[in-house]
């Protein structure tokens, strides 16, 4: 009897324009378009060498993504009429495609929740669900000060150390951690754009797959 192939949920961490590594990772996980589901954790764009090509590839894959802090920054600049340095850089790189980029990311959800897991770029406020949380926090939280004013203070506990929910939360955004694997939390930002790795999570088996960065594209802060 021939085994019936199982549909997999493939989730990929922060790509940041690393198109060659993305394609290598898709090959390595043997992604099957139209059969497996494919989701990204935001920050698909910016910092890396091929942001425009990565966005085009994302559209070709018919994948979904949650909003990352880099995409949220672009949307906020557009809405305010303020062109930051990153906004201007991407506007020049994308050319005629820039308006399509803005329209596309404007439709990205801030989180994706299923019966089995939650996908979010930054993380959750301890004790609250994503639907109760402001998009700024969902896309940028690292540590928790009890109020949400300082989300990146190494003197405060990380949000995921305080997360007590049973549902798996998969997040990106925090490359310095080099990835996180706990029973109810998995972090997939393994710093590809900084010369480390690009990582995918395959569910339901919770299998991690990664490929090495071809080079360091952006300095580590």
**Number of discrete domains:** 1
Classify the fold: give the CATH topology.
Purple Acid Phosphatase, chain A, domain 2
Percent strand equals 15-25%
Structure annotation, total helices: 6
The class by helix and strand makeup works out as alpha/beta
**Can you tell me the CATH class?**
Alpha Beta
The N- to C-terminal Cα distance equals 54 Å
Can you tag this structure with a few keywords?
221 residues; Purple Acid Phosphatase, chain A, domain 2
Commentary on this structure:
The structure is a single chain. This protein has one domain (about 10-210): 4-Layer Sandwich (Purple Acid Phosphatase, chain A, domain 2), CATH 3.60.21. The chain starts with 8 loop residues before the first strand and ends in a 9-residue tail after the last strand. Helix content is about 25%, strand content about 20%. The chain is built from six helices and ten strands. The strands form two sheets. Strands 3-2-1-9-10 form a five-stranded mixed sheet, with helices on one face. A five-stranded mixed sheet has the order 4-5-6-8-7, with no helix packed on it. The protein has about 220 residues and is α/β, with parallel strands linked by helices. It has helices spanning about 20-30, 50-60, 70-80, 85-95, 100-105, 135-140; strands at about 10, 35-40, 65, 110-115, 115-120, 170, 180, 185, 195-205, 205-210. It is globular, with a radius of gyration of 17 Å.
